[in-house]
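Data deposition worksheet. Section B asks for the primary sequence of the deposited chain exactly as it was used as input, without tags or linkers unless they were present during the calculation. Section C holds the resulting structure in token form. Section D is free text for depositor observations; keep each observation to a single sentence. Incomplete worksheets are returned to the depositor.
Section A, Depositor: J.P.
Section B:
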Amino acid sequence: MTIDQIAIFCIIIFTFSLFIWGKFRYDIISIISLSTLFITDLFLGGEKSNLILNSSNLFIGFGHPAVITVALVLIISQALRNSGVVDFISRKISILSHNQLTHIASLSGVATICSAIMNNVGALALMLPVALKTATKQNRSPSIILMPLAFASILGGMITMIGTPPNIIIAAFRKTYQTNLKIEAMQNSDSQAAQYFNEQNINIENFIPSSFGMLDFSPVGLLIAFFGVIFITFIGWRLIPKTSHKKPNSGSNFSIDDYVTEIRIPENCKLINMKIKNIEKYTENRLEIFGYIDKNEKFSILQNNTSIKAGDRFLVKADPVDLKLMMDEYSIRLTKKMRQRIDKLKDENTIFKEVVVTPDSPLLNRTRQYLRRKTSNSLVLMAVARQDKPIHKRLDKIVFSIGDVLLLQGNSDNLKDSIHSLQLLPLEQRDIEIGLFSKVALSLLIFFSSIILSIVGIIPTTLSFIIAILLYIFTGILPVRQLYDKIDWPIIVLLGSMIPVSNALETTGTSQLLANNMVTMTQSLPHWLILALIMVITMCLSDVINNAATALIMAPIASGIAISLGVNIDPFLMAVAVGASCAFLTPIGHQCNALILGPGGYKFSDYWKMGLPLEILIVIIGTPLILYFWPL
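Section C:
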């Protein structure tokens, strides 16, 4: 081993040790690793060292196509979220939640599909509220639902290139590695690279390096995801210890479903001619109409046999998230005065916020008029929820009490200042967009158009996604203020910092050295078993360190093994992609696992009981699938 190889080997071990220790977040560890690489390169002589070929390119990883693509996918995920795509899907599957098996299957299936077209962490974040709400409605423990949902999100990410960062990394790595192989083969006809091209019957001069395409991961990923979801639905959830089952409805301290707000019935409303008494059943208990607003703006109690007519205005109770769905589903609208006020105050920084009236708030025992005066008419009171007793008044007549939950709309800066000055307690952010209309069809048209442009090779994936994001901004689906909100910056820092470390494995020849040694140790084993071992090793690493970091480290090693064996590198890269995505044993291996730890009430040791059988199943199924679709 050369001094450079010893140095990078020590840096990798040091980095892995920090990941496993878990004292620092993974982006901090990656910066430490990059800094150590630079300092070591200087110590070894700078230009004489192969750790960093050009010190001016130290941060070139942040401009790498894989890093840019990961950021763009996260932005697109936010746009799809805004458009109501998942709201639409969840509305369609709500009827399947009555039976436990169909409940798990429907949620897992939707999460799998969503993860294929957007980042899998984003897909889980979208489905998590749906899962919790349906579990509460069916009086079912969220522990039974959430782990299958998280695992399904991870499985769905394997289906396309954009589903998960490891796939994006592997796709970009393939082109880089093939380019380096071609250069080496043309410079030295006796090199391993030249022998590889000869054994693969590839004409070096005509060979054009390429990355994996958008759907190249689909044949293997789709079948693994399908069998994985089948396992999760019928067997997996049964392996979660009953002692870890969280009691139904224990996930929140109180309910805020009973908001009071005002609506009107337009000409095309589907509730026209229905009796008031039938509305709750028709809307599956999501909407309760309890008061009528006449032409003189007076409130009156309704009779159950009253029929709904076009132009009617009512006081209703509903959860704001449900109300947004029902506005689309039944063509309900807010009252014209509220609509006009929303439009008047709305700009690109308009947001919704749920706040609680505290004992020290000046709003206590006051009305909406005082709220408007104190906020200089900069906010809209959309609705009010009260826990201890029902509200039977119009919004302007309600006297605020301790514990009232107010749904406010306004400029983000004004809201923040008002919440502070009025001593209100903000609740955890929910996806509340009552005043907006869904744009499901338009958002999907833009998304799939960008995918098609990428698949047929008209424009690169990164550029097609940038165009899609611009269209989302121009159509109002993605407000500019949200443009960078959902980018997972620690992941971006991790990728940008670790790419030079991964490159050092190649430039120093360390990846090929490790590959040759592994081939020597496994020379009596068949190629399919070596492929399976690479997948298992990658899985193990992914369970204890970040999956993107695992892919960056294992990709050059796996490719080196393929070169040493004289076989196609593609199946080995696919094995790394699958293995890096399979972090099912711990809550720290994947963000999806971490997201459900609290809401599901799980212990650290609960994950492997369901995850280990699933990983074994994936190795058994995945190995022959990879070899079938990507022959050696």
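Section D:
The chain is about 55% helix and 10% strand.
Strands lie at 259-264, 288-293, 299-301, 313-318, 333-334, 350-357, 379-385, 405-411, 424-426.
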